[in-house]
Amino acid sequence: MQRIEETVKPYDQNFTTMVPTGFVKFMRTCLIWQFIRFIAINIKMIIVVGKSH
């Protein structure tokens, strides 16, 4: 059985990084969307903490 280090070839075509699309870049930098996500995460946290008490 071969070890994984022997079969993986670095800098091969399969090891390219994902490039974000224009929409993804916009969503990452949009302050309105970030605020909405902040509120949603806080609501989820309140629910989880509320269930434990």
UniProtKB/TrEMBL annotation:
Record flagged with keyword Membrane: yes
Keywords from the UniProt entry: Membrane, Transmembrane, Transmembrane helix
Membrane-crossing residue ranges in chain numbering: 31-50
Protein name in the entry: Uncharacterized protein
